[in-house]
Design a protein that fits this description.
Chain lengths: 315, 255
């Protein structure tokens, strides 16, 4: 299928181009702040994209997705603290532990639906939060400083701002490409079918929960990668990364950008984090403005920003 | 009589104090079109749901193609060749017609843990789906999203989805529900064609259609079988007349 030229695709393409060229702009103007800000945005976009896979395409409203950010981050932080600095060990461990955690949460929470599912995913994430707070060896409540970023044997230097930015961007594009392939694959169609009508899918011969669970694990693993990036970005990981408000932030990004659209979470992350950043310069109560904006989006622009653009191009 | 394709023995399903299926036994032989009729609340849909595994019986057994399937979940029964259509149209509303059918074909074509290739480009799935759509007269509507299809078309699509699973036994739960006169006539013509290929259990309120199509009819009242036989015998059965057909449902001959 050839991508059609319409408003939402044009915006997605422009956005990608802008993200790729950002370090050039930053270098030309000497504006380092914008590069730092967007590194953070790109990482959260990856996390939001992973949440979109289960929430938008799979219809699973996970309210505990930030847990994987923390797990990926702590995997890097703890290994670094124990003297294992190689990214070739840290990152696979981050992914595997995230996958296992997703498998555990998924196999329990997917027995339920609706509000119960939301509550169980939330409960597990909060449990992870309290466990991390109790890890006194690794900073407990205060969090854990990562003194040295993951070492990739000279292949790439994570301490270099531009290189690290491109690494994050590469992970984001790679993640989006993976999600795009999955969504259009046999597996992806089954997952979306289950979201649409579970009973029907069972009746035509699909064991719905098996597909849901695998999707849940893939999503958690991708988010674990975002967690590993985040710990490297802030040189620090703390239980706060896993707090339920963080999971809420991720949900908001997905809803704001557009659930079930590939680039929706990216645009959602950009808009949300930029707004947060801008508003915090004027007021301490950025939530007072962000809240109503979100309310308007949910009330009048179902399908988020991407949905709005789609409607505009259809006229 | 041939070995039955489907056998139900002493099936019981209770909902609280209500016995929706009351010690029910019946047989469906290969090749027949077996209609199940009964007044509202007779437990027809409950029976179908137990046959396909959406509802589990309290006791009794269901044997399909010589195999006890009583405790099998619905997705496994579907793989054995048991397909159903739903009384209230139950499709994937935000998918196109052909996607709905292709997914049904996919369910019976190996596992679906394939994450990379584009499923919409798998030729044999698309071809199977297109053939099933043609079969029910929806060939030209393949790419329309289900929510944009008319009610009649959605009923036909239900049938195409069931057909794409290559069933041995097709359980149709009121395929005529809500159809207009012309649409009903089309559906009857379609079922007349399909019955040559597949064994069908038909639950239907449209008496004209039932008596025109069925080889045998089972009459349910309060979850119990009160009669089972060829249409002529059912028409004459005194108990059936009393319990179900009554005056407002007087059946006239159509031959």
């Amino acid at each position: 299928m050839k991508p059609k030229l319409n408003a939402s695709n044009a915006v997605a393409a422009l956005m990608c181009a802008a993200l790729i060229l950002l370090p050039v702009y930053s270098a030309a103007t000497g504006n380092i702040f914008i590069l730092t800000l967007f590194t953070r945005i790109v990482i959260f976009a990856l996390a939001a994209a992973s949440l979109n896979l289960i929430m938008g395409y799979g219809g699973m409203m996970s309210f505990g997705h930030a847990a994987y950010l923390g797990i990926g981050g702590y995997a890097v932080g703890i290994l670094a603290a124990e003297g294992i600095g190689s990214g070739f060990i840290q990152w696979p461990v981050a992914l595997v532990v995230s996958a296992l955690f997703a498998l555990l949460i998924g196999s329990l929470s997917l027995r339920t639906r609706g509000v119960y599912f939301i509550m169980i995913t939330l409960a597990f994430a909060q449990m992870a939060y309290y466990v991390a707070s109790a890890l006194s060896r690794y900073g407990g409540d205060d969090g854990l400083t990562v003194y040295k970023r993951s070492d990739f044997a000279g292949l790439i230097n994570l301490s270099d701002r531009t290189q690290f930015y491109y690494l994050c961007l590469g992970c984001l594009f790679g993640g989006l490409y993976l999600i795009w392939r999955i969504v259009n694959s046999r597996f992806g169609l089954v997952v979306q079918g289950v979201r649409s009508n579970e009973q029907r899918m069972q009746a035509i011969g699909f064991h719905a929960n098996r597909y849901r669970l695998v999707c849940f694990v893939i999503s958690g693993t991708i988010c674990g990668l975002a967690g590993a990036l985040l710990a490297n970005n802030t040189d620090f990981v703390s239980p706060a990364v896993m707090y339920w408000t963080r999971s809420g932030d991720l949900m908001v990004m997905v809803i704001l950008g557009g659930m079930g659209s590939l680039f929706g979470p990216v645009i959602g992350a950009i808009v949300y984090l930029l707004l947060e950043e801008l508003l915090s310069q004027f007021t301490e109560f950025s939530g007072l403005i962000l809240g109503p904006v979100l309310l308007l989006i949910v009330l009048f622009a179902r399908g988020g920003i991407m949905g709005l653009l789609g409607r505009m191009s259809r006229g | 009589m041939a070995e039955p394709l489907l056998r139900v023995d002493n099936l019981v399903r209770r909902y609280g104090g209500i016995t929706a299926t009351d010690n029910l036994s019946m047989e469906v032989v290969p090749g027949e079109l077996h209609a199940i009729i009964g007044p509202n609340g007779a437990g027809k849909t409950t029976l179908i749901s137990q046959l396909t595994g959406q509802v589990m019986p309290n006791s009794g057994t269901i044997t399909f193609a010589g195999r006890d399937v009583t405790s099998l979940p619905s997705y496994k029964r579907s793989r054995l060749g048991l397909a159903r259509s739903f009384q209230i149209t139950s499709l994937l509303k935000d998918f196109s017609a052909i996607d709905n059918v292709a997914l049904a074909a996919q369910a019976h074509d190996g596992h679906s843990f394939r994450f990379w290739g584009n499923a919409r480009k798998e030729r044999h799935l698309r071809d199977t789906a297109r053939a099933a759509l043609e079969r029910v007269g929806l060939g030209k509507r393949a790419d329309i999203v289900v929510s944009q299809l008319s009610h009649g078309e959605q009923r036909e699509l239900e049938l195409a989805v069931a057909l794409a699973t290559k069933p041995q036994l097709l359980l149709l739960d009121e395929p005529m529900a809500g159809l207009g006169v012309t649409e009903s006539a089309r559906m009857v013509a379609l079922l007349r064609e399909l019955r040559k290929e597949v064994t069908i259990v038909l639950v239907e309120h449209d008496m004209e259609a039932v008596f025109a199509l069925a080889d045998r009819i089972t009459v349910l009242v309060y979850g119990r079988v009160i009669a089972c036989g060829v249409p002529d015998a059912i028409r004459r059965d005194e108990e059936v007349k009393r319990a179900y057909l009554g005056e407002q449902h007087a059946v006239t001959r159509h031959d």
